[in-house]
Amino acid sequence: MPPRRFGKTWWSKLWIDALLELGRVYENRLPRGRRYAREGRVRIILIENGTVVAMVKGEYRPWYEVRISLKKFDEKIWKKVMMEIKKNRRMYSMLLRGEMPPDIDMVFQRFGVSLFPGNVNELMTRCDCPDHANPCKHIAATHYILADALDRDPFLLFELRGMKREVFLAPEKKRKRRRRVCSPERFLMQRGRFPEPSFDTLPHTPYTLIRLLGPPPFWKDREYFMEVFYEIYGNVREEVKEIEREK
Questions:
Q1: I need a labelling partner for 191 at 20 to 30 A (CA). Which of 56, 81, 154, 176 fits?
Q2: pLDDT in tens, 188-228
C-alpha cells in the first residue's frame, strides 16, 4: 500500500508550503512528523477562537498537547470580504460545495491581507514536549493532519483566520426602516390648528379631511387606514346627529 499523501488540493498544498517554510531550520523534524501523521498519532480536539488544539501520541509520554493558530483578521476586513464573496455566486456556491475558489485570495488581497499564511510570522505554534525545535515532530504531525482536514473542508482555513462557519453562512439581516413615532397632538400641531367645528359644518363626504391630511404617522397599519377611518367617521356623524336632536 502506498504511503498516505497529504495536501491533495491546491489550497492544502499551500498550507504544507507554510510548514516547509517554518521547518527550514529543523528539516529533520518534518519527515518524523509526517510519519506520526501517517501512523494516526494525532487527535484534533477542538478549533476555537482561531486556534487548533490537538493531542499527539509521543515516544516518551502518552500524549503531547499542540496548539496551532494563524493571525486573525479583524471584523472590518471580514465584513468587506464576506460582502464581496456573497455577491459572487460562483465563488459562494463553490464554498458551499466544499471547494476553495481558485481566485478567492484576490478578494482578500483587495483589503491588504491573504487567506493563506505567507510567512512564518503568521503561524503561531506551541507544543508542551521538551524539544526546543519549532516545528517539533508533534507540531509537524498536526500540521499534516490539518492539511488533510483542509482537503475535506476549506472552511477550516476561514476558522483559523477568525471567521466561524455559521457566521459566514448566516443570511444577512434586512435592515428595518425606522418608523418615526409621532403623537396625534404633534401631528395636528405640524398641520396647523383647526377652528372648532360646529356640528352643522361637518362635511358630508367622509374622505375630505383625510385626503387633505393623509394618514397620520402614528398609524401602524397604513394599508387599511381609509376603511377604518370611514367606519369611525360614520359613527361620529351619527353621534353628532343624536346630540343635535337632543338640543
A1: 176
A2: 455 455 444 444 444 444 444 555 555 666 665 555 555 55
Q: Specify if 221 maps to a domain.
A: yes
Which residue(s) pair with 46 in the sheet?
A: 53
Q: How far apart are CA 49 and CA 201, in angstroms?
A: 73
Chain mean position to CA 191: 45
Please tell me the distance from the alpha carbon of residue 239 to that of residue 222, in angstroms, as a whole number. 26
Contact (CB, 8 A) for 57 and 131: no
* pLDDT recorded at residue 199: 45
Domain of 217, in residue numbers? 184-246
* Per-residue CA distances from 200 to 196, 237, 241, 245 (Å): 12, 10, 9, 12
Mean pLDDT value of segment 157-164: 90
| Distant-in-sequence, close-in-space partners of 99: CB < 8 Å, separation ≥ 6 | 154
Residues 146 and 223 in one domain: no
